[in-house]
């Protein structure tokens, strides 16, 4: 295949940053050329080009009004347009139609790209360890900020400062707050609402700070504020912890996604369920194996683990009415000797405030 195009937009597009070192801003299109020619990264917003040239390992040019049109012009200037081009990334429909109108065969490379990201190199594991350490610092700051009278905005400001002050990058900061005695929220919220923390609240969170684009830790925890957990929350967390331990013990090379799903049977046996996925690959995107909540079918075909993969185990157990839930989980490395923690923050349901 003589050429490939790799697309990203709106701070999304892990393949672009992986191949060039440039974190995507508004839009970026990498033209991967045959060996005899240079690759070119096309960056939209002219004022983003200078820093892209400093960070990218490839030549950088302005993308112009439409990145695909500029890419086609570039290829045509090097000779005639190829009849076959590979494509990775979520290219907008209008740009795909332009590409398909001038190139006979556009080949989807997304599945192949995902396959390349599954097993991490030693350098990638090192970056993920750094992301995990930044995430640990963030959740420690979050726990320290959980005081009656504080808003979720203030808590998140403390959380994010803990890693940005160390050069970390934003990835995920989700926070959920509800009353333990009258719960009305089972999972963390993606956006803050100004909710004020009160005594006997329960706080759930999912925190991912990155050392570099797409190299983030991920740690999920539950805190009570100003008092011990109720019997319901103690039971929810005990079931979640049991599921986490059972799933983690299953993380060995050769294990299948269905084995991970089966390891979470304790959740249904206890009369609870989950909303989020139980397990997902991480580091370079939201990767296989994606093991959904009990009762939802596994994606086909079944997936086999290999040493060097990194996955998040997160059996976030909730009541069947969706009113109460807990978060527990973190990023783990699959090794020949079993799972290896990348995080150091203590596990378990903890009291703050």
SSE layout:
Layout: E1 3-9, H1 14-20, E2 27-32, E3 40-43, H2 49-55, E4 59-62, H3 67-77, E5 84-88, H4 93-102, E6 105-108, H5 110-116, H6 122-145, H7 152-164, E7 169-179, E8 201-212, E9 215-216, E10 219-225, H8 231-249, H9 257-262, H10 265-269, E11 273-274, E12 279-282, E13 286-291, E14 310-313, E15 317-318, E16 329-335, E17 338-341, E18 350-352
Parallel strand pairs: 1-5, 3-4, 5-6, 10-18
Antiparallel strand pairs: 1-2, 2-3, 7-8, 8-9, 8-10, 10-16, 11-15, 12-13, 12-14, 14-16, 16-17
Q: What is the average of the pLDDT values?
A: 96
Structural class: alpha+beta
Tell how many strands the DSSP assignment holds: 18
Number of helices: 10
What sequence of helices (H) and strands (E) makes up the elements? EHEEHEHEHEHHHEEEEHHHEEEEEEEE
Beta content comes to: 25-35%
Distance between the termini: 59 Å
What coarse outline follows from CA principal-axis ratios?
A: globular
Largest sheet: 10 strands, mixed
Helix content class = 25-40%
Low-confidence stretches: none
Radius of gyration over all CA atoms, rounded = 22 Å
């Amino acid at each position: 295949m003589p050429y490939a195009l790799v697309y990203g937009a709106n701070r999304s597009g892990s393949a672009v940053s992986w191949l060039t070192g440039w974190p995507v801003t508004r839009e970026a299109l990498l033209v991967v050329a045959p060996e005899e020619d240079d690759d070119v990264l096309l960056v939209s917003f002219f004022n983003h080009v200078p820093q892209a040239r400093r960070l990218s390992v490839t030549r950088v040019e302005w993308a112009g009004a439409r990145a695909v049109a500029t890419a086609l012009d570039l290829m045509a200037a090097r000779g005639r347009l190829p009849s076959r081009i590979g494509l990775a990334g979520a290219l907008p429909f209008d740009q795909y139609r332009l590409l398909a109108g001038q190139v006979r065969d556009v080949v989807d490379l997304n599945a192949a790209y995902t396959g390349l990201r599954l097993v991490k190199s030693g350098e990638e594991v090192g970056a993920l360890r750094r992301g995990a350490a930044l995430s640990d610092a963030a959740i420690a700051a979050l726990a320290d900020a959980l005081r009656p009278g504080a808003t979720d905005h203030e808590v998140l400001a403390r959380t994010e400062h803990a890693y940005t002050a160390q050069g970390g990058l934003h990835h995920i900061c989700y926070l959920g707050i509800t009353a333990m005695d009258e719960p009305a929220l089972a999972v963390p919220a993606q956006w803050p609402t100004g909710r004020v923390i009160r005594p006997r609240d329960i706080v759930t969170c999912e925190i991912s700070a990155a050392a570099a684009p797409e190299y983030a830790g991920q740690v999920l925890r539950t805190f009570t504020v100003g008092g011990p957990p109720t019997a319901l929350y103690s039971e929810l967390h005990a079931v979640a912890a049991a599921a986490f331990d059972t799933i983690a013990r299953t993380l060995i090379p050769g294990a299948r996604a269905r084995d991970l799903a089966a390891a979470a049977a304790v959740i249904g046996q206890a009369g609870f369920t989950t909303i989020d996925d139980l397990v997902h690959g991480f580091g370079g995107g939201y990767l296989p194996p994606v093991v959904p909540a009990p009762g939802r079918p596994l994606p086909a075909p079944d997936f086999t683990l290999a040493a060097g993969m990194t996955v998040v185990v997160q059996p976030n157990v909730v009541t069947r009415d969706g009113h109460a839930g807990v978060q527990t989980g973190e990023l783990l490395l699959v090794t020949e000797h079993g799972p290896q923690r990348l995080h150091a923050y203590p596990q378990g349901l903890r009291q703050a405030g």
